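pipeline: protein-struct stage 2 | run 1193 | Trichome birefringence-like N-terminal domain-containing protein
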Amino acid sequence: MKVYGWIAITICMVICLNPCICLEETDEGNCNIYEGSWVYDESYPLYDSSKCPHIRLEYDCLKYGRTDKEYLKYRWQPTNCNLSSFDGKSFLTKFKGKQIMYIGDSVSLNQWQSFICMLHSILPNATVTQVDGEPITNHTFQEYGVSVIVYHSTYLVDIEVEKIGRVLKLDSLKGGNIWKEMDVLVFNTWLWWYRSGPKQPWDYIQIGDKIVKDMDRMEAFKTGLTTWAKWVDTDVDTTKTKVLFQGISPMHYHGEEWNEPGVTNCAKETTPINGLSSTSGLPKASYVLESVLEKITKHVHLLNITALSELRKDGHPSSHNGFHGMDCTHWCVAGVPDTWNLLLLESIMN
């Protein structure tokens, strides 16, 4: 058994060896906002998802038949302090004229959808200009001039179509010219690094002049992250742009992770994992991410959602989505991503 409280403490100790990615103080002094537990709270959820007009069919669990609602009632409670209550008007006022961008795969889209619904619940009649496209979707709250944007990038580094086919270029990151103009950047990638077969969106991998058919995926992940890290150090003015990297979002397809080895997925899970423990530990990708972040010289904050989200085997759509396929990867909206956004706001506003 591995205790997540101790895992979180260990991660914090490792990360805080580098002052560029240390956690910031809260109103009660030094506090690891990522160490704590899920508590039942009747005042939750933060909003009624049926009144949010922006939820995609992948994440709208109640619309697509989920009848149990207990999963909506859990609030993240840090051990030694409290998260600030969500105040959408305060955020929009403080960030007037600014742009926040989520950059990554469909997990980034998942979190962006959550934040849009959180803001809509506070200002249901706000004038919002929507620009939907690929790779950028932008919702701008006109009264405040605040843009909340998602930029779809499965790997952060580039895929280019050449004569030989689609090439994943581990040392090329062209999207950065757009990203670095934002006021807040929230990065994420991992979900697609292990994909193979027909769903794999590339045919070859390139590093410098070397092109290969395939390579160790964890090594490829680390190489791609290192390219991103070098871009941050050379191209981003972190005195003007806040940079965060979201921790690895866990999946729940194997019951042994919560001491039920006969369970094959998250389909019937309605409550979090009891206590603070799990047999699975953190994903290997988490340690790869940490090793890259430790080498960045600029100020980057780890939005460390991995261990706390590991406990939420109940938070996935399962078959309650517009595709009716089994999904223990993404998260219901409303749900766990709302907490990610509260942690995000705590990190960038305090």
